[in-house]
Records
---
Amino acid sequence: MSESIHPAVCSAQPSQRADKNPDAPLFEGAYKERFDHILSRYPNKRAALLPVLNMAQELRGWLSPATITRVAELLELTPDYVRSVASFYTMFQLRPVGRHLIQVCIGIGCDLCGAEEVVEDLLEATGTRIGETSRDGKYTVVEVECLGACGFPTVVQVNDKVYENVKPEDVEGLMKELD
Amino acid sequence: MAYPHAHPREARVLSKHFGEKDAIPIDGWIERGGYKALDKALAASPDDITQIVKDSGLRGRGGAGFPTGLKWSFMPKDGGKPNYLACNADESEPGTFKDREIMRWTPHQLIEGCIISSYAIRAKHAYIYIRGEFVDVVRILNQAVVEAYERGYLGKNIKGSGYDLDLTVHLGAGAYIAGEETGLLNSLEGRRAEPRIKPPFPAQRGAFGMPTTVNNVETLAAVPHIVLNGADWYRQWGTSKSPGTKLFSCCGHLQRPGNYEVPLDFNLRDLVFDLCGGPPKGRQLLALIPGGSSVPIMTADEIDCDVSYEGIEAAGSMLGSGGLIAMDDSTCMVRAVRRMVEFYAHESCGQCTNCREGTSWLAKILRRIERGQGREEDLPLLLDIGANMAGKTICPLSDSAAVPVVSAIQKFGREFEAHIQDGRCTAVN
Amino acid sequence: MNETSPVLNVTIDGIQVSVPKGATILEAAERVGVVIPRYCYHPGLSAPAVCRMCLVEVDGAPKPLPSCVQQVQDGMVVHTASAEARKARRAAVEFLLVNHPLDCPICDAAGQCELQDYAFETGQLRTRNIEPKAVLGRDKLTPDILYFADRCVLCTRCVRFMDEIAQEPVLQVIQRGHKGYIDTMTDELFEHPFSMNIVDVCPVGALVNEDFLFKPRAWDLDQTPSICPGCSQGCNVLLGTKENRVLRAKPRPNNEVNSYWMCDHGRQALVNWGAGDRIEVPMIRESGRLAPTDWPQALAALSRTLEARPAGARAIVSAGASNESLYIARKLADKVGFKGGVFRVETGPEAGLPGFPKLRLRAERAPNVRGAELLGFRRSADVLEAIRGHKGVLIVLEDALIDAPEDFGVELEMFIYVGTHMSPAARRADIILPSTTFAEAEGSFTNVEGRVQRFAQALHPPGLARPLWLTGSTALAGLGAGAVYRTAAAAFDALVGEFGEFQGLSYAKLGLGGASVAEAESSAANVS
């Protein structure tokens, strides 16, 4: 991501992408600019924590202890505190995940309409169990609570892309798209 | 007929332009009358705007139904501290997906609402706290915010009025409880989204310790229409206690799921059977949840009521967020309730004992019953656990988790008993 | 009552009480002796109101209210034992037990566990829960503290202690909901000079002191109020003793000195305090050899020594001795002609507690420096040098003189050693009087701020060891110099009459909380 982002929306950039690099620097170039923009929108540094963790995850794919420590340093917080906050939110990955993080909604709306079968088919297609990353590092399939699109079941989110009305028969096509 | 299943019986105020791609960019929105209300608002005084909203009877659409104008009037006017507006776009109540569609199709409707409301409460900075999972919607909203800045609707001296407002979009990271207003404030401040003890209320001590108003997306989106057309115009719909229109997110076993906007005196049965087309062919409606998974389940024969706050309450449930979940006769009630309770167990912040332990205990018992290892004494036990969870915690999540269990056992006790006796679900056919 | 009055009236379980504005229901209840059960509330910490144990019924309130944060309003009528309040409390305990391992037989907290107490009190002898329990395991947090996550009730007292009082927020709640537990960022152990307070504040057996683990059961311990002798702060403590040994010390609340806290140094110093080979009988030198004797013989020898001696008496005392014993040491020296006395103080690094700045681990690692000074003894880095050349009587009180040269005391006319432990130098004394540690006799210390505080007897002294205030005063009384002080109170009250700095104090007045010499001075000044 090289283009400049308006300061008003720097705190709201989707964080799960396929092109993650666990060793990416925190933060340089356009990301440093985004970091400064984020800080400019709040009366204190602590408030920038969620957006900055998001940005770190966008770059590195997950929040390693080293990442957490670095973010803590940048925001003048303790690493213990940052870990506590990060572990509260389900979208922060505290373990590495596959290149494609496949999240299947099993909320009541999707469950009533057959989400279970979609999950089963995705696990079969990726050869994994829930939460496990495939051997080639490509896929991690997880069940997630309501994604807030209950009228369009089953909802599947792959990294930062949402698929609505996914039926078991759509799984094959979805997997092709990811390859 | 447009957006997926528009219906002539709807009263489409907020959702009028759902489905129109051209309404998303700012030019398209202005062509459709956008930002006229803002011009009108900036020419009036903040207190006049608050008065119009008070007169309109608009009530918070996030679930609690608190009168919006009254909430605004709690904000200090002396300017001693900065006031904030926090827009609650952390829509996470299972069965609810209306705010998502407002932001997806009409982001400028929300932004205009945010500006007018900020002006009314004398805020210089507004935050839209949007749930982290809304990855596609946030791109649309972000684009719209940038456009609004570029056109001078945000920033310094908005449209020459002398009023300054910054707006920041803030992404959540996966926590239902961040949708509770004080949980939202903690999350916005970079903390765990644990709800705060009230008092102090947000209008006294909110974001960053400053006076703050927290309003839902749908509430704020209604504000420009009310300001532009007046309180009486808004009151042409609904009842005296529940004026206006409301979006209903309809999901589950329906022929035409989706969002429908109806006046608040609309009939609930008509909404389900006429607008949504009722359950799939060959199926009977078994149960209905009218306001998101936190409100009591209704039986099919309880739903002949109007959808106002008081109408649904009289029928034994609550309007809540307007997330309508329909279940037909193929539904295993034990499973459905278990699934809803698991949600709350997953989302409990864990501060309060009753909620942290109660939600997971309920889920374990329901899982066991579903597996066919239920015991007769489980039903009174579930009811008593539910009673011990209700009204005893800092925030209402604990109550919410107990509601589906208690109401389902009260109304669908036979399904539970049969499941326990037979060791499996006999309802599914 | 008019509106400006700061006093509010509230009825707790039918008892009327007036409290200042801002008081919580829980505080108001304590004023009338009603203790509302609580887990997350701790008087020394902020109140998050999360355990939901202290819910009470309030007339007119739609639901039970958390008494730890709910402020009293005028005319409020509170029921802490109504059916609703009891049901709420019962529910909270039941919920806490749902995932609790119920491993009381192997839990260190058994017998001093608030979860156990309230489970019993609410009559929950059987569980309604048949589901498998969550297993979270255990972790080591500091070199001395273990965390049993399965027993944890997530009251967050430990988190708040580290955050608010230690102000090093290393402990945090990790995860959320029923998966939550307490942890630090890394697997490395953290160290903090006041870390052990997190064990004290834990209302259950989640945080335990590894050093104490599996040693005694809580109910086997005798508890005695005392003062920590680890430094000159004078933390108020409770000594836990069993089989005549100190096995642990816990802070005893005193808002003037240590609040609810104490340091790890003091606790560790206190365990087995005074251990080692003790002097158990008096000894006197006869024809060049030390021989054991009884008290009448020893005191007779002492009396003979106290007859006029032109070279006078010098003393080496200890800042670990009580005011009362120091006073008698002084009187013994006076009887001969006091030529000055010294004491030395071991020092070590200081450590502070930012959330309660009054409390510090003081550099001076002795409890009664101020008392020794007020009684006319002088602090000296080299006590041996200070008495060099003295040819008269030397009285040594509780300083083992471990650095003394082999020929120590050859010039002395008479060498009286009063102590607990033997040493090569002590063996050169003419009279040896076995004395007691602070744990073995009552008495008082004067802390760094001039606060005089009493400690009670927690242990039996070994053999014939007795405090100097008893033995020394007996010898003096035989010579017509004062009475026999059979209690520390008598000795202290006599001391007050002789040393103006202590004016206005009395042993009874010190009570359990102590009183300050400075205060005594100013109040005496006010009277005159």
---
Amino acid sequence: MTAPMTPPETGAPRKRSLVLPITAVVVLVGAFGWLIWGGLDKNVVFFLTPNELLAKGTGGMNVPVRLGGQVKPGTVKWDDKTLDLRFDVVDTNGTGMIHVKSKGAPPQMFRDGMGVVVEGRFGADSLFQSSQLMVKHSNEYRAPKAGEKPQEMYKSLMKGSGQ
Amino acid sequence: MTSVNAQTTLQAPAQGRSTGFGWFAVLFLIAAQVTAIVISPPDRDMGDLQKIMYVHFPVALNTFTCFFVVLLFSVRFLWQRREQDDLLAASAAEVGTIMTGLTLALGMLWGRPAWGVWWVWDPRLTSTLVLFLIFAGYLALREFVEDPERRGVWSAAVGILGALNVPIVYMSVRWWRTLHQVQSSPSTVDPSYVIGIRLNLTAVLLLTIFLIWRRYEAALTERAAEHVLQTAALGGANA
């Protein structure tokens, strides 16, 4: 059953060395294990919530950071002349508000209550200057209700902007 | 000194056995795509962009099917040393690598309009890229190792390691914060979308089985030819 598949071309049977593959697997499995249970969840955080960023105090200011949360309903302001977009981001429980300023038209799905991740810097003036605005979609897929048209939020936001 | 062990001499498979199944899989896929697109309304948030889901998600999930096959037959190869197991694992790895690449490409096409970015280094996207790179490495490794047995052992080691990454990819959206959303379920997806997803999951599974099967037939044929040449080179006295 464990006979070599192919005979050696000359002389004595070649010794089958499993040391290297087994060592490699052990090392790599260990590394993966460390990544999962040890390192990643503490050290690598894709984004901070508003409360976490505020808790950092001045340490969280003027450094590149990702902020993730929800667009607080009713706070979206779009200036169609300067292309400035302003809105507030809060934790999912509604606390920890941070004012965000972004430039340019947002992704289509951007609207009140939507999850967002913004890259940028939190200034000492308590304004988060966003250099990249990303919309986080939920895991829900819903048909429009009767009379509702998809993507209307985007168009209403862009109204008067010349587009 | 004996010639190639009769027990391990590979026979070329009868050609074309998978063809009928392949046609069935392709036609099923076309029917599933058409059905899904026709019966589902545009999504409330993203409109017709949602249609990418009918390819992205089934392909992504079936990469896991491929890598499960890799895991299974790599382990059995290390245990029993049948070359067929190595060839089947390699075939599944090849299909899985292409499908992981497709998952990434479709995800990027979806991400740009939906999220606003082509790519982001969040744990889901990063771990998927790592999965792709491990199996790209697996395929490269096979090209560099001449001896079939050593090639089999090394491939199996990398294949098992790569397959261990699958649960990490799957759970990444729950273990860590990501831009990518967590798994949907029938309770978060309207019934008009669920049917299309189920049909296409089945269709892509059939296509995956066909592709692995067809690739395995080709690999067997190739190795059987090499066995014949090897036997001849070793004298062929026992033949």
